[in-house]
Write a structure and sequence with these properties.
Elements: E1 2-7, H1 22-33, E2 37-42, E3 60-64, H2 70-83, E4 89-92, H3 94-104, H4 110-115, E5 120-123, E6 136-139, E7 165-166, E8 169-174, E9 177-178, H5 193-196, E10 199-200, H6 203-217, E11 221-224, H7 233-243, E12 249-254, H8 256-261, H9 264-272, E13 274-282, H10 286-291, H11 298-310, E14 314-321, H12 328-341, E15 345-350, H13 358-361, E16 364-365, E17 374-376, E18 379-381, E19 404-405, H14 411-422
Parallel strand pairs: 1-2, 1-3, 3-4, 4-5, 5-6, 8-11, 11-12, 12-13, 13-14, 14-15
Antiparallel strand pairs: 7-8, 9-10, 16-17, 17-18, 18-19
Helix pairs in contact: 6-7, 7-9
Length: 425
């Protein structure tokens, strides 16, 4: 069987050609390893109508999609079906996996039926290829020992240029860990098995992949897409020891509380080549941090920033406004934290509710505020039809399609607060 794997556009992004969809490359690699004839068609930055050119060339079309990409994904499906009405289709990726778990809980959602326009809705990790070829809702499960998986074959990206530089060096993305053990309520992986069960590559396997990217593709600079590089202090020490033998540089995400509990890890990370570290500060209000179950305090965020800065590592903070029950006073605390901590860089976004997070999955119907049908811990919002409605949290010119409010902050208030803080940059 010959298979086309489709990466949909993300037209809401400032630049769609920063990092490739390595998850889809992993699927392509696994399928080829099982003997299938596979091509990866990346539509990021391309005219969607170009799918017509391949509509009759394959026996199976597999689409990957995040939730905010669903508008584009369904648009591609419609174009494909116009050209080839009998085309057999699969949808997988983060959105399908999140909606599968919602369906399993028996929660009714308008987006579930929309996915059934595809012949197969595939949840889970793509290395279990057998279930991809069955009809209906399928759960491929997860890979418990990820060292047994093939290194993603970047030759699938040949002729598909992506460009990101860090300190003047061409940089690509890697992932050495799957899953996150923490329980932040805004995260769209908390109700999805493959995103909450931690599995990590061994240091030896990590070096093998990095060396391959260096030797075959010329990369010496890497953006780590692990949820938290420092979630396991023992593994981190061994990993950093291994990385210190290579002249590579890295950017990664860390937890502030883990940095404070293990301050020696900052020097380990520096020795390993990490030149940029990012933390999810989220809010400058301890009340908000406790409510969203971040597991970190404001003081720990300050101390992590100090430790990382003292080591001479570039520090970036990720923050949000529009948290459940947030007040102008809470937002002012976030503003104060940024002014006081003075991160080398920061990002400020509007909290956007997606399937798979506790806020979306646990929301109750509400009539308290006109125009907002659901509520969770003082956050009021609607559940969009993702195939039709935009849902990105930040896009071109800083715009957001997030539609939320709290008792004391309207949707306009939240977006204006973000713009005020953004001007601190």
């Amino acid at each position: 069987m010959n298979v086309a794997l489709i990466n949909p556009p993300s037209p809401f992004l400032i630049n769609e050609r920063v990092f490739p969809n390595i998850g889809l490359v992993r699927v392509a690699t696994a399928l080829r390893g099982e003997g299938y004839d596979v091509d990866l068609h990346d539509f990021s930055g391309r005219n969607p109508s170009e799918i017509r050119q391949i509509a009759n060339n394959y026996e199976l079309f597999g689409f990957s999609s995040t939730t905010p990409q669903m508008q584009s994904t369904v648009g591609l499906l419609d174009l494909l079906k116009q050209e080839n009405p009998t085309a057999r289709t699969i949808i997988g990726g983060p959105h399908a996996s999140a909606m599968y778990h919602l369906k399993q809980k028996g929660i009714q959602d308008l987006n579930i039926k929309d996915l059934e326009r595809f012949d197969t809705v595939f949840a889970g990790e793509g290395e279990n290829v057998d279930k991809m070829f069955r009809l209906g809702w399928q759960n491929g499960g997860i890979v418990n020992d990820i060292d047994t998986t093939l290194i993603p074959d970047r030759s699938f990206l040949t002729g598909k240029p992506y460009k990101y530089e860090m300190d003047g060096q061409p940089t690509t993305s890697i992932q050495t860990q799957r899953g996150c053990p923490f329980v932040c309520e805004f995260c769209c992986g908390r109700d999805v098995e493959m995103y909450k069960k931690v599995r990590q590559h061994s240091p030896e396997r990590v070096l093998k992949e990095l060396d391959q990217l260096h030797d075959e593709h010329g990369y010496s600079s890497f953006m780590w897409y692990d949820d938290e590089v420092n979630s396991n202090s023992g593994r981190l020490e061994a990993l950093c020891d291994a990385l210190s033998s290579r002249p590579y540089q890295h950017r990664g995400f860390v937890r502030s509380d883990q940095i404070v509990k293990h301050p020696e890890s900052v020097q380990q990370l520096k020795k390993a080549g990490f030149v940029k570290l990012c933390t999810g500060v989220e809010s400058g209000s301890d009340r908000i941090l406790k409510l969203i179950r971040k597991g970190v305090t404001v003081e720990q965020n300050y101390e992590a920033r100090r430790l990382i800065g003292a080591a001479g590592i570039h520090y970036e903070a990720f923050t949000m406004v529009g948290h459940p029950s947030e007040t102008p006073e809470d937002v002012a605390m976030t503003d104060k934290w940024l002014r006081t901590a003075k991160p080398d860089d920061f990002d400020i976004n509007v909290l956007t509710v997606y399937p798979g997070c506790k806020i979306y999955d646990g929301a109750a119907p509400s009539t308290k505020h006109e125009g907002y049908a659901f509520e969770y811990n003082g956050l009021f919002f609607n559940k969009p039809l993702y195939s039709r409605d935009p849902s990105f949290y930040k896009g071109l010119k800083g715009r957001s399609a997030s539609s939320t409010r709290t008792d004391s902050m309207t949707e306009t208030d939240i977006h204006e607060a973000r713009e005020v803080i953004q001007k601190l940059k």
